[in-house]
Each structure stands twice: as C-alpha cells, then as structure tokens.
C-alpha cells in the first residue's frame, strides 16, 4: 500500500482529471445510456399527479435529447409520451385518472429502463380479519373506502375465474361497506376490491385465504410391499363436515407406481409407458380400494393426498387444485419384500356373508409355490375366525369359502419352509364387519331334546356397544322373532318366551340391524344322554389297530338297534358312520390307518337322534427301543451296529408279529446303506428306505448330504409311523498344533475320533499344503504323529479322506522367531555321604538343544535334539555344593538351573563291618569292566537291557546277593537314558576303578 500526503497527492489527482478529459470522444459515445426510473409517490390516489424522475447519464458533455416513455394505464393498452433530457436527467408529471396498476418504462432503441409499477387506488382501511376455512358461514367482510365514485362497488371474488364473484356491497356515504358470505364453499385465495356494478374493471385491494377442511385419511394396511408385488389396500377419506355434490380424489406419489395397477378415472403422466410418479384417482364415496397396487420401487414412502371438491379438476401431473374443499394426507412406508409375503383378494369381510377368500403366498422374488426357482419348499395356509376354520397347503393360489358368523377378525396364518430349510411364519388379519351376538349360558347348557328354554340373546356392535334396534330370529327346534324397532330393548338384550325344544336339529340365531349388519349363532341340540357305551379296548396302537368295537346299554338293557356314530379323527376331521349294525354281540367301526397318537371321542346316537352316549379311546404309538447306538448317533461315513426292538405302549411287551421297521432318510439329508450281520445289503424300498423286521441287528453306513444345512437324520418307522430317529454326525479330527515354523521340524499329532468320542483305528490321515504332503495311519488311540517341515508360509490342511463332512483342521506355517529358552530339569540328592554324585539332567526345547554345560564343563551331545537326557558325575567337597547347569538351543536362547547337594564325609566303618563285598571300596564310585562282555538287566531275572563290553563305565552301588547293582547311562532311541540295573555272570567279569 502507498500512502500519499500533502502537495504530492494533490498533483497526482489533478493529473488524473486532466488525462480523463483528454480521452477520445468515440470512447465516451460507445458507453450505452442507462435509465433508472423512480416515481414519487409510489402509491397514488385517482385524480392526483406523480412525477417520474430519471437520474440517467447520457453523456458527460451535457448533451440534450428526448426520451420515450412507454406506459400502460389501468385496464388500458400500451401508450407512449416523451420527455426532454436536461443534463442527462428528466422529470415528467403524470396524472392518474382511475384505479388500477400503471406501469412505466423508458425505451430508446436497445436501451431500456427498469419497470415502475404504480397502484392507483382510493384510501382503503379493512376491518380486522380472522382465519377462514371451507364451510364457515355468515361471514361479513367489511371496511372503509373513501372517494369511490358512482358506478363502482366493493366485490369479493375467487382467484379462479370459473368460480367468479362470491359477494358484493355498495359503499355508504361514509365510505363503509359490508360483504356478506353465506358460506365459504371453495378453498383458495379470494380477492377483495372494487369493480363496476357490472363486474368489469376489477381492482384488487386485499387478498383473503380460505383453507380447506380436514380430511382424515386412513388405510387398512400400515405398510406396503415394494418391488412389483400385488398390494390389496383400501384408502378411506373421512370428512370433518358433511359434504355433498362433489368428488373425492386420491393422489398417490413418492414412489414409482405401475400404471396398470391403478384403475378408475385417473389423472397423471405415464413415464416410459410403464409407471406414474404421481397419479390421482377420482372416487365418489371417499373409499378407494386398489386390489393390485404395484409399487416398482423396493423401498420408500407412498404419500396419499386426498381432497374433495365440487368443480371439475384441472390436473397437472396429478396436482390438486387450490380450491379443494377438504384436504388430508397419509404416508405409508414401502418396505422390501420379505422371505415370505402374504396377500389376499379382500381387505375386509362381512359377518354372516359368504365370501371367497383368495390367499397368495410369494417368496422374495415374487414367485409362488411350484414356480421355477421358487424358494418356497413347503407352504401351509390356515384361516381361522368366528366359525371359520380351514387350511390348505402347497398351491400357487389358495381359495377358501368363508362365512364368519360374527364381527371380529379372520386370521390368515402361513407357515412356509424355504429351500434353505429355514421356516417363516406370517400372519395377516382381516377385519369382519357386522354385529356380535351371544346366547345366555342357561339356554346353551339346556339345549337338549324336549327341554324347555327361555332364550336371551344379547346383541352389540364390534366394540361392545349394545344394539337395541336389531331383528333377532331363532329357528330350528325353537322358533321366534323379536324386532328392536317395535319392541323396547334395553342394553341390547332380546328376551324370548319359554318353549320346549321339539327336535334335535341345530338351534340357529340370526341377527340383522337396519343398516344390514349381521351376526349368526349355531348350536347343536343333543338327544338324551341315556346310552352307556363300553369299548372293547380303551387303548389302540397306531400302525396295528384299525377299528374300534363297543357295546351299548340303555339302563340295564342292551341296545341292538342300528346306531349312528360320530367322531373327530386324529387329523381333526369330523366323521360320521350311519347305520352301524349289531353283529356278534357288538358294534364295530372301521377307523382306517391310525398314524399318530391322540384321543378320539365317539358319540353313539340313535338313528332318530334323540338318544346318545359317548366313549373315548386313546391311540398310542408303538415304542421302538434303539439298543445301539445308545446315544442315537451314527458316525458319518463309518459302519455302525444298530439294533432295535418294538414294544407295546400299553404293557411294554415286545411286538414281533405284523411288524415292519423302515429306515428312511429325512428330507434328503443323507444317503445310507443297511446291511445284515453278514454284510449283505438289505432290500431297498424306494432307493432311500430299507425294511427290516423286529427285533433286528443291522449295520448302517450313513453319509450326510453335503449341501444340507443341518445334521443328517434317519427316521425309524414302525408300520409306516415314525417313532424314532438316528442323527448322522461327522467324525472329529483334531491336531495338537495350529502353527508350525517354516524350515523347522515340527512334531504334529493328529487325533481322529468317531461321533461318540471313541478313537478310530487304522484310518488314513493326510497333511497337505506349504510344501507338505504327508500320509499316516492312526493307532489304537486314534492318533498319528507327523514330522512336519514346511518349505513356505501358508496353510496345511489336515484331512481324513475316508470320512465325509469332517471339519478339516488347518495348521498355519509361518516364520517363527524362537525366543523360548530351554527347560532344564535336575535330579540330584539333597544330601549324600559320597564324594561323588550322579546328577540326572533333562533338557527340552522345541527348537532343539544344541549345547550343555555342567559347572562350566561342556557335555558332549551327539546332535541337536528336542530332548537331552544326561547322567553327569560331579565330585563334591564337604558341605554345600551348588551344581549349575546351562543349556542353549539352536536359536541361541540360554537357560540356567541349579541344584544344591550337601556332602557329609562318612565315618569309616570298623573292620568287622565289611559286608564281604570285594568291591565295597568302590561303592558310590565310577568303575569300569575289565572283562570282555557281560549283560545288564533291569532287575534280577528281569528284562535284558543291553550287553556291556570291556571298558564300559558305570557307577557301582553295592552288592545285593549274587547281583552287583550299578547305574549306567545308555543311548536309547535318540538320547541317553539313565537306568539302575544289575550285572550278572559274576565268574566272568571284574570291576576296577575308572
């Protein structure tokens, strides 16, 4: 920054001014004129004058000229006038002769000024305004306007010209006006201003906003499924006020909507001839059902905007117009398809009305059961509700005829097993519209042929509110009807007179209210319970028994007339056998094949239905006892002995007659073979099932299907009824190490056990990877030891190839820095009376022991090894002696250990204490053989260890009988081992001091 002060600064500024005046004229002339208009004042009253002023620069020499001003008067067409420039500016007066907006702009060739808009109006003061909404009545809009000429009045009109003028008012001498609005019919913006009495030349003075009434928008679903699935949904728009003469519109937006899934009169723009991003549907009653609404987006939010209006709609891509009378919005989440998706053709049901209910079950890819690549493996659909109970399975579409008896809910439950063997349960609730009815407990308990009843029927709506204007009709063995419209009903209770039941047909109650809502009750009427029925067998065995026999008595007398028998079988199906005859002193009813356990309740009825009796039998499964394997487990890929027998569930006696035991695969989970005790394959039934008698001893070889996600299973069935199972589990292979060092010998122990935890002998185990390829055979303990020397880093996979589905351990081969010191173990007596002592030293190190020092003296090693065992003789001094052992491994890690031995010199024995041992003077000392050969045993007459030769060194321990006890260190199996033993052949050897 340069700062100029005093005369120097003045000189520079003067020079700049001079240079500016010397610029060529053409440079200045090329600068376009700019006009900036202002008006004073900006709001004018008709009949007054305002001045237009321009502060524009034309040129710096003060040239004079004329400018053209273009203006548009209120309600008129474009006109012009001129004004003379003086020193580059002008000021022009203009007289405003009437109300309205005036616009002014200077135009000189391509040079134009800003546009000035001026409102010419009379003095206006509105009264205080409130907030307004559609439906507001008797609204007075008043105010004061001064100077309004004759022929003009105050007018209120909607901004939509199609709606037009709503009201008008003349102005009093004092300038007051009051416009009366009987009711606001349309929402939107209204303009209040002046106009001629014929409505022309309207000038807006004020805007008034009228809000729409609220529409409460609801849906019968809380979420929708995206991704082209069919959604059956009903939208309801409930107004807050009574409306008539108009049309409802439902506008959908927020996600892509399949164009073919929206039916009715629609408004919207189709994109790519496929879908809407926004679409509106007209509707007459405010309830819109879209039974196949497809949303192409998989996730998002569907916005539903409902509105109501009387006029026709001018849509632009589904946008609602601003004059809607009512307006409401609902947002519904759109979720991705689940593994199992359930849809129905109806969203509600009516009580006591027969309806076809269609249920659609689709997988995540919009496929149904049976479609190619469908993930639905097994599907069961159950429909339950008031007097509704139906089910079906494994179809592309499920159709049920339902007639719910009362208001409430019908529940659709879907249990689907997928191809990955997972199971999904989905429920969908469908509301039932109608009434609820109940029959008093005393009547229900007394619905017996010939009994006198006084029925009391209570009727409510779905929420429990009493209904007093319904018509209740009873038919069957009792007849009667009560109308709540002609009878005074209190708390919804309809009281019928007493009468006897004349038949055993159903007692039926039908209810209907004036709106057509219904309910139904149905009760059976029993005959007299006078029969005593006794079955031959109280318990039946499934798979063996196929019929039930019984006798009937009425009092003390036997019944022999034909009877009807009713029961519900074990599958829940009602069965009736009519005209059962009395034969060979009893009645017999065939039950067919009994395949499950349960209880069957029988009702024996006289053919006229007026007498009956009941009895019950239990059905039990036969018992199959798997004697082996005791834990019910088969080892994968290994033959195992299986034995079993079948027993009665009644008295636990063994059953052999008419018995077939079948071994079969569950759900394609495994393959298997069954062999007799001689190794012969048994006859197969269908490739995956084998039949045997019972009892049986067989051998089973099973292998789980590798693609099956769970343990394989073999089912044991008796006469076709599954009563037990065997589980196929893999053998277990383990290793004692998960890491080994590259370039080093590593001892790895693998262990193979069956699924019961028992070792597997003579099995092949392999190690492969990182330059390792080894094969071994397990011993009796299921173990095999490998020396593993990997050449590179990586994984070594351990496998037992003969055993399928086994978990294969992995060993990581990596470079290992050995920082572990050798482990030293010292065995030496704490005290001794001998001048020398043999010290047992054991050193271990996985990196191999390479060096050993005892009291600083090097001990020779044959080669580096994992374990070193040495016996070192140490000469002692009297008192405490510290023996120090140092060991080093191949990596240079050094360990030190010490042991203390206290030497107390013995008192020499008297001459008469000589034991007779000619070598007693050598006791505790090192000696050597001076004969050519002799033998060493562990103990007298014990195992021969080694043949000793002349010059072999040992420590003499004394004489025991004819045996001379010694301690020697012998090379055995890769290292020195120390043994205490005995040398014999006393006539062929001699000992001398070493």
UniProtKB/TrEMBL annotation:
<dbReference type="InterPro" id="IPR013783">
    <property type="entry name" value="Ig-like_fold"/>
</dbReference>
<dbReference type="InterPro" id="IPR008964">
    <property type="entry name" value="Invasin/intimin_cell_adhesion"/>
</dbReference>
<feature type="domain" description="Big-1">
    <location>
        <begin position="723"/>
        <end position="816"/>
    </location>
</feature>
<dbReference type="InterPro" id="IPR003344">
    <property type="entry name" value="Big_1_dom"/>
</dbReference>
<protein>
    <submittedName>
        <fullName>Bacterial Ig-like domain protein</fullName>
    </submittedName>
</protein>
<comment type="similarity">
    <text>Belongs to the intimin/invasin family.</text>
</comment>
